[in-house]
Structure formats: structure tokens, C-alpha cells
Hints:
Chain A is an alpha/beta fold.
Amino acid sequence: MARLRHALAALLSAALLLTAGGCVTVDTDLAHATQVADWRDEVIYQIVVDRFEDGDPNNNYNVDYRRAASYHGGDWQGIIDRLDYIETLGVTALWISPVVRNVEEDAGFASYHGYWTQDFLNVNLHFGDLAKLQQLVKASHARGIKVILDVVTNHIGQLFFYDINRNGVPDIVFFGGGGPGAGSRNGDQGSELRRSSEWDPEYDSRGVQAFTSLGENGPAPIVWVEQPEINRTPPMPPEFQNPAWYNRKGRVTVWENEAAASYEYRRQQEILGDFPGGLKDLATDRRDVQEALVRVFQYWIQAADFDGFRIDTLKHQEPAFFEVFAPAMRTFAKRLGKDNFFMFGEAFDGDDRLLGSYTQGEGVDSVFYFSAKYRVFNGVFGNGDATANVQRLYEERDAEDEPGRPRYSQTPKQNGPTSDDGTPLVSRQLLVHFLDNHDVPRFLYEFPDLRKLHGALVYLLTIDGVPCLYYGTEQAFKGGPDPSNREDMWLSGFATGGETFKHTQRLIALRRELAPLRRGDVTFRWSTEHTGEESDAGLLAFERAYRDERVLVMINVADERDARSRFEDRVMPTGFAPGATVADRLSGETFQVQADGTLDITVPARGARILVVR
Amino acid sequence: MRLLSLSLLALVGTARAADPPPAADRFEFGSYGRMGVAMDGEGGRGERRQIVAFGPRLIEDNYLELDFGYRVFEGPEGRARVRTTVAFFDDLFHYTGQVDATLALRQAYVEGEDLFRTGAYAWIGSRWQRGDDIYLFDLWPMDDLNLVGVGGGYRDARLHLGVALGLNRLEDGRQVDRVPVPAPSTFGAQTVTLHDRQRVVAAAQATWQEAAGYKLKLYSELHFLPRGRRTLAGSFTETEALPDDLGFVIGAQVGLWNFARNGHLNVWLRYAGGLAAYDELGTPAGLNDDRRSVDAQEYRAALAGNVELALGDDAAFGVQYGAWARYFLDADDEEEDFDDRFEAAIAARPQLMLGLFTPAVEGSVQISRPNGLNPQTNRQAVARVVQLALVPALTLARDPGVYDRPQLRLIYAVSLLNQAALDLYAQDDPRSDHDVVHYLGARAEWWFGRGGGY
């Protein structure tokens, strides 16, 4: 009937249309509004769009389910179709993989992940059109679910090659015969064998050099590729076709032998080099490049009403870039009526100092807490390292690597995140915790023990900051390194009865119910260096206090032994009132706080307790 | 079908027994053709700007049909004719220098008519089934089927009842899938057809017409595609299921003639659903979640006709006109969908007939309003092309009317495109920059004899 109404309306308007040439936008009433009261209240759910749900078979171009590195058919309609599932799980914000048009494939790998930008201003039609993207955001907002866009400001896709031998076509170039004495049957002196891929040559701090048998002859020109059949064409909008907008120094290679390089040199390569895979590095220190990137990503806030950006490859850009980019986004969003526009970046590095450096000044609001990924989730929850490492890392947030400057910014940013009472929130409070993501093996792959996963989930969803859950974690997915960790979510049947789903759902519900778990200060009540037979080995306990409420979280990371909140004469102090009865919201058990405010209880091996005053 | 074949064999047998007319009288020949050459305002090949499903035909590609018939039998039991139509598409040696041609065998069938003097007819073979057209758009708005199959019915001076049933198997993965497999008895591979499903198309029509000058026609089609299973690309062992599909057409036409000089008017309404909303030689796109086209719809309305007025004894004035509108919704459930659209076009060609000299002008408008955003611009806009043309022409016929041929034309046309129309072309297509397009051409058009393609 709706279609019939459409038809009648169309026919009736035919006469008008014959003379009208006007232009209307599909969504003329796209309203921009603040969706977030306090980012600490949110639980982010990361979705690789291509792998989540196939809601529209008509955009399944070049889909091959059998190849892990091909498009699999997931799209924005699929997410819309599964909002019930997402809502049932309880997460409150979606981080969706990049939406912009990509080069389709490279070396047999497809751009299903979205990180190979060809056109900054158009959508990737594998996932839908702009109207569908708007629909996804609106449908999510209608359920109170926020949407965060994954953006790449560091590089574009592999859209040009370095014409090292100046023959105008992309080659893998070989020079020489194999070194002195080699390549010669009679023992005469040979020549050194050199190999270079013009697609992805190795880093050269002078810039990639042209080379012939006569030697080097200056910077290698870059050549834009025209392969429209795979959308490998010069970048759009056209200003990005200026060769000077790229650093043109070749691929980062310093990680091959990182120990041999100075910190400064490693950072130089990371910032100026092409990202592995031939992803060409933008010269983001240039003002005109900065302005262009600001424009294109402001467009996406306006076009689809996103609530934040997850910024890719943060550590491959100068922090100074984000001192321009981030304020421009905040100001723009605010002008649209969107406060609390949240930007957090991916610096794929365990170097806590490096992570913190990106939160300084007016840069990004937060970063993925990779140091916690490695030291807490992998180290403590996965490997059973001493829980003292958790407290240690937490305390390092305030370390002053430079006098008067804490590692993670504690200075509010202009137009930056706030709580709902207007209190500014600083980076230190907003670190994005995660167990795993699309770039690292799933937690269960590295630590194939559900008990470990469930303990890690307790920490993820009770510690401060903003928790981020990778899709499929709740389904106990256990894929290995990329691309195995990007499984098809539909294979799970979107079941809601599984043990891990229920555990995750329960923890999210508790976080939502108990304000201290979202907004409370953190006080460590117990951590230990013990990992053996000691009574407290494996115990971690921290308290979250917000206004008059407090929650005590106790987790035991030991595999076999119960952990007791007592070692020798020392008993765990708490902030609870002496004599109070506290209940464990996970097991239902109750305990009595001692007259001196301490609590002496045990936590089962790989178990956890979330204690509140009954 | 077997009975029908036997009947035809019997007819042929009877023909041998009867005294056949001389062979020269039994041979029939006809042709439809349009040939010419043109340039645009910059010396390039002159081409039309078409943004809707059916654009004005004034600017067309070259095309030729050769129609051969042979009356193999005429007797008291009826008549039988063999007909073949060969069509050549725009690929001329004198233009390209390539010794090559693109041709198609469009019709090849045997038809028995007035069988047993009952008015019944039957045919088997490849043929088109067409009713009346909008000349200015080269469009049969209600009934235009290309079938390989069987048909029959009843026909007299007023009533025509007809049915047809045909099959097709397009060279498309939805209908056929051929894969190489190890040869059973020698080295190498052989190709086998793993997926093989034909679309069944059935059509029925009833026409009542009176010599006084009107007719009514009802028309319907039924399309069916059985379920199938094809291999996944690059694999022999892994397959995917393809569901069955279904569609239908209903349409009605009212025709009037015998008014003014040579005047006529046809009005059509047509609804197509599911598989039938797509051309029988096209591949459905925009499928529903079950990968079926059953939810697709097309509403179509059209009219066409002409009037002619005598201007004294030696001159006349005529106008041909035509218009159509369609609203198409593909089978997916997208409300905001660039593939779903309202389209319409209108054209009129006033013409003077001053003896053989028959100058004309033509004006046309095409509009297209998609239901979704143009993926290239992220805007939803009404695309429009307005075309105006001067057509000095010679019609080489006695006392010519607007439908007489052959006609030799010079054409100057200018097409005006709005931005939304330009945005329908790829950004790198030079046509996306030309909002004013000129066309200068010399063209001939003819039809005679048994040709039926016009």
C-alpha cells in the first residue's frame, strides 16, 4: 500500500516535475543534536561493517565469503536490522568502520575494512548510500545509541607508485646480479643485487630516489594510477592529487630492527613514512593539507550526524596535526548543535608515554589504551602476571614525563567533553579500554580460556574510562591475527543465550545501573606481586566511588587457587561503613564489613565479585 | 505442441498436393532501416542525450532489418508462411573500417493462418509480439515481447484473441552457469553447464476493434523463473541456491482513428509486478532479501497519436505526439533508493507537407526523479533534458503524411541538460561537462513490405 501511495504521488506530481528542476535532499530534516550526556556512561561496540550483517544483497559486489580478505557483504542496512540485538546486549555506542570510497583491492586483498581511501567525500557503495548511512545514524539515535565514525587522516589508499626507474609503469625493479663473486661462473666480480618495489619502496629519509644502472638521479616522481575497474584512480576531492601533499619517503621499515634505531629516528619514520601496504602518507604538517582534511571530515559530521570520530593510525601523525584538526571538529560540531563530540585515536603502541603525548594540549580527547591492552589484559588477565602491574599502570597516568605535565592530559579542552552538569572531562578520565580489536588477535585466540575472558570483561566493564567491546567478543569468537579476527558475525546467529553473551550483558547492565562503575573515582584496595601459593596471589581489588555510592570490584586472575583479601596480617581496607553488609551482584552472596572497615573474603579462581552495600 | 506440429506438417503435406502459386508470387520481402551520419558541436560523433528509459528517437543509432517471407502453403485448410528477420546493428564498415557486423536473427518462425478457415492461427519459432507503438520514442508501451516459443489464437476482422508461450535463457549467471571440469577421457578440461534455468514467459491478449475507428485491447503476461543452484565464482564444489521468481503484467489500451486526416490516438495503462517489471531480456537488479524480484513494480501510462490538416489541395500540416510516464520500484525495500524513480518524457513533432518537402520541428522533454541520492553527488535532484530540433526533410511518397516513408532528413538539434542530468554521467565522462549539446545530422528512414520492426 505504501508503494501504491508512492506511485500515485509520483504520478500526480508529474506535471509539476515536467517544469521543475529543483533539487531536494533526501533527508532535509537531518537534525544535529547532542546525544551524549557523559562519555563515561557509554559502552562502545566496534563493528567491522562488512562482517556484521548483510542487510542488502544488492550491494554484494565482488563478495566472496570463502576468502578472509574479500568483501563478505555486510552493510549499514545489516546493522539497522540488528539494532535489536545490539540493544539487547546493552552497548550504547557503535564505532563503525570507515565509510568512504576505497580502492577496491590491492594485491589480492580487498578494502572491506575501509581504510584505503580513494574519495574522502563519497560513501563506499558496498555498504549503502548516504541516505542509508543517515538512516543508520537516525535509527541508532532513536534508540539512544550513538554512532562513532572511523576516520583516516594519515594516508590514502595505494593510489600512486614511485617511478623509480622512470619508465612510467609500476615495476618491481631489480638492479645488479647478486653481489661480488656471485652470479658469475668464472669467479669474476659480480654486482650487488638490489630490489625495489615501485608500489611500496622502503623508507628513504631524503624521499624515495629514482635510480638507474648509472646510479641515483633525484627524487622519484610519483605516478597516479588509472584503474577504474578497481577504483584505483587519483584521490578525490581533486586537491588531494597534488604530489606535494604527500611525504613520499617510502614505507616504514624501522620496525624490522627497532632496537637498532633511536627513538627519534623511529618516530621520524613512523610519522613520515608510508603505512605498510603502500598506503601513501599525507604531509599533514602542511597547512593546506590540514585544512583539506578538516573540511572533508567536517562534511561527515554534517552529512550523517556522527557523535564522534575514532581516528586511525594516530601515531603516524604529528601530534601538532591534531592540535589543528581536533579543535576544528569540536567547534564545527558545536556550531551544528552537537556538544560532546568525542575523538579518540589509535596509537598502536604499548608505549604509555607516546599514547599520553597525543592527549596533550587541544589534541584528541582520548586514545585507545594500548598499554592497558598489553600490560593488563594480556599480561595480567591472560598470562597471570602480578596484579600490581594494574595499579602501577594506573598510577603512571599521573607520571610527569615533563615537569608539571601528567602523562595523560588533565587539562580540559575548549569545547571538549563534559559531564551532564557541565564539568569538563579530561583525557585521563576517558581512556578507551579494550580487550582486543580488528588489528590484534582476539583475546580468546591468545588465551583460549573462557574464564580468562570473563574475568577480563569484568575489568573492562568496571574500570574507569570508556569501555570498547569488539563485535563477536560476546559470542566468544576466537579468531587469530588479521584477517582471521574479522569473522562473519552472522555465523553466530546473533544468539543471545550463550554464556559469554549473558555475562557481558549482565556486566553492561550493572555498569548502567551502578553510577560509580561509570563515573566513580578509582581507589585500588588490593593488588599484589604474588602469583604463586600466597593467599592473595592473583587478587585485584579496586573501589569506584561516586557521590554517596561506592562499588568494590574484586577479581582473581589465578587459574587454580582462590584468592583471599588478606595476606599475613594485612587485610583489605574498604570505603564501606564499618559493619555494613555488602552483596556480591554476581553471585548473590553477602558479606559483613569488619568494624575497622576491612573485608576478609575470598574470590574463586578466575572469579570476580562486584560488591555493593545491600 | 505435438498436435500443433502434426497439424503444420499436415498443412505442408496438403500444400504439396495442391497446386502451388508461382514461386515469385510466394516470396515476400520487407525492410525497416534508419541510416545516417551526424556530428556534435565539436566534430565528434553526434549522439543523443538520454536520461530516461525511453528517449526521443529523432537521434538514433543506425539499424537495419531485412524481412524475408515465403508463403509455403495456401489452400482451403488455411495458409502457412515462413518468416525470417535479420537485424544489423550500428557497425558499418564504411564508418569503422572494420570488416565486421553485429547482427541478430530476430525472427524465424512458421505460422499457419486461418486454419481450417476458422480464423485460428498458430506459430512456432522466434518472433516478436508487438502491438501499437509511440513512434516518437520507438516504444511499445504495453506489449513488446521477444519470444522463442509457440503461440496461437483466433483472428477476424474485429476480434483478436491470442496467446503465446516462450522461453529464454539469458547469458547471465542467474540463468546459466558453465564451468570447466576435468575431461572424462582425455587430457584437459571440458565445459559443462551446471546451472540451467529458463525464464518462462506467457502472454495473452484480447482486442476488439471496429472499422468505424476504435479498438479496445487487454493484455497480460506471466513470467516465471524456476529455482536453481549455481557455483560460487572460482569454485566447482561450492554452490549457492537461487530462488524461483515470478512476475506478471496487466495492461489496457484504447485506440481511436478515422478522425481528422490520418489521425489516431492510443492511450495505454500498464502495471508490471515482480520479474515482469524488468525487460524479458534484462537481468533483474535491486532484489529483495530473498534475492527475488517479486516485490518490484512498474506503473506505466502512455499516449501517442497524430493529427493532420489539409492546407489547400497541395499542402498539409500534421503533428505527431507522444508521452509516457513510469514509476519504477525495484524489489528491495529501500525507501530512499536511487534505483527507484519516476520518469516521464513528452515529444511533439509538427510537420508541414508541401509535396515532397516535409519540414518539421520537434521538441521533447525528459525528466527523471530518483527516490534516492545520486551516489556521485549525494544529492537527490530531478534530472531534465530539453531537446529542440529543426528537421528539413523530403518524404518520397505520393501525397505524403507524417507516417510515410522513405524520408531523407537533415537534423539540427540542441539538447539542454540541467545539472542533475549532467550528474548522471561519470565525473570523468566529458558528457558530464556539456549542458548544451548540438547535433547536426543527415539521416534516412524507411520501411516497406513485411518488415515489422518500426
